[in-house]
Write a structure and sequence with these properties.
262 residues, mainly alpha, Chromosomal Replication Initiator Protein Dnaa, Chain: A, 3 domains, two-stranded parallel sheet, 14 helices, 2 strands, disordered N terminus
Length: 262
């Protein structure tokens, strides 16, 4: 983490010709000229979804050691922009800062001394590897956690979360669909010309391949023996129309989605 000391930013002034913020441009030029990489222009804030409380302490240590790792200070407690001094009792912590969860996770007694020793040990390899990736994953956790992740429509990083989760294969989708509808897998894979709409299990499997496995129409068409992606698109659209007006079918689809993770 490279950084520069933060200065009070002047209000943005937009230039309609270039759609830039001139008041910030000088700071960006300074960063380039000084060959420094700071968070101010690194990109939009991105939330990271963490699996368990077991990651809290390693993440806290990573954050608190950043100034030292970036060679901004030799002693962490002297870095004025860090909450570390509050964690070790050097400064009173503000009302919005809660330290007890991290400290309690490490020890029941002598928590401050334990945390100081814990931070001094250095960043563990899992966290270092996670943040060293060029494209930072939106989830810190196991494959099993990603697989069982339930997405909400109002999640800030839904596209990233969808990309990171473990997706079911077409084979897995067909197996689960057949189990719920009590049909044979052969009837789902087999191409029945002119009868796609009368094979709800096949249409449902295609629908799930698009919405749960993020497959493109061309890939779905190939897997289900169709000659053109438009055939897969048409079958899925017809199923979506049925789904929109059939509450029982909606319940069935939701149950199938729950069973897709291995």
């Amino acid at each position: 983490m490279g950084n520069v000391k933060k200065k009070t930013l002047q209000p943005f002034i937009r230039d309609s010709r270039y759609n830039v913020k001139p008041k910030l441009l000088n700071r960006k030029q300074f960063l380039w000229g000084a060959v420094r990489d700071g968070p101010l222009f690194r990109g939009q804030y991105k939330a990271i979804l963490v699996e368990t409380e077991a990651h809290w302490a390693p993440l806290s240590r990573y954050i608190h050691r950043n100034p030292f790792e970036a060679a901004l200070v030799k002693r962490l407690k002297r870095y004025q922009w860090s909450s570390y001094p509050a964690y070790i009792g050097q400064h009173p912590h503000p009302s919005w800062l809660t330290c007890k969860y991290i400290l309690k996770a490490l020890a029941t007694r002598r928590r401050v001394e334990t945390y100081k020793a814990y931070v001094a040990e250095g960043i563990d390899e899992e966290i270092r590897t996670f943040y060293a990736k060029k494209k930072q994953p939106p989830i810190l956790g196991s494959d099993a956690f990603k697989q069982t992740l339930k997405l909400r429509n109002n999640d800030i990083d839904v596209p990233d979360l969808r990309e990171a989760r473990v997706k079911p294969t077409a084979k897995r989708i067909v197996e689960v669909v057949c189990q719920h509808l009590n049909v044979k897998t052969k009837s789902v894979w087999a191409l029945q010309r002119g009868k796609t709409s009368s094979n709800p299990a096949r249409s449902l499997a295609m629908y799930l391949c698009q919405h749960e496995a993020d497959m493109k129409f061309g890939e779905i068409a190939r897997k289900f023996g169709l000659k053109h992606y438009a055939s897969a698109s048409s079958s899925i659209r017809q199923f979506e129309a049925r789904l929109a007006r059939n509450q029982e079918l909606q319940k069935c689809v939701n149950l199938i989605k729950l069973d897709l993770p291995l």
